[in-house]
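note to self: dont lose this again. the chain is below, predicted strucutre after it. 262 aa total, dont forget to put it in the shared folder this time
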Amino acid sequence: MIGFLIKKTFFDLWDNLFRVALLNLGFIISAAFPVFIPGLLLGVPVLSVISMLVGILWCAVYLSAAAYSLKSVSDYSSFGFGDFFRNLKAVWPAGLVMGALIFALWFLITLIIPFYLNINSLFGLFLAAVVFWTTVVAVLSFQFLFAIRSRLDTKLTKVVKKSFIFFFDNPGFCLFSFIHNTILLALSVLLAFLFPGPAGILLYLDEALRLRLLKYDWLEANAGEAGSASKRIKIPWDALLIEEREKTGTRTLKSFIFPWKD
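---
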């Protein structure tokens, strides 16, 4: 399943290279606000923090609209930039929630954990460890928040709840996705964040959730078998992905570089 997931994501990224690059360019422009403006307002700490918070919230709102737009790419379709602005109006609350969560995680990592470590006691170390592992679980869970908002539920409390449920049911897969996206992020730095960039990561996460949900459809259809088995059920991914593989197809290097010759 993972091999096909990476393959399909790459194919979809390549087929939508221009759209992905433009989405990434928009994010670069948006990210410039929380990166540079707070430094210009260091003389007024309150304004500096507020500008950073506003900038993070806007970046999260932008990413929420990008994620919702990229959902159509994952579904073997496409999107126009009129769709992006309509999506922006529809999903901005999810973006604000994600922005607030990012700011809270930043606060925990930069202030709360160092504070507990500076207590210089076993109790302080214990509290720092609890906060650290809580942060790790939150990061691994919330990486799928936009995809879950796009595919499963629009009620934000349920989106947050389902993010944690998805993590605890698929911890290894969530960890792999985080490592995979960290590699994509490193690659994006080399390519000035234009490719694959944040849009590429969001597309991967939507593809990952979409394919992973096939497992739950199969479990629901085979509830009797799954419920009566004494050992962990092995998901028949080869069978579940037959249609997906047919839609995605195979390609040669020539078809990537000269698609019009096929």
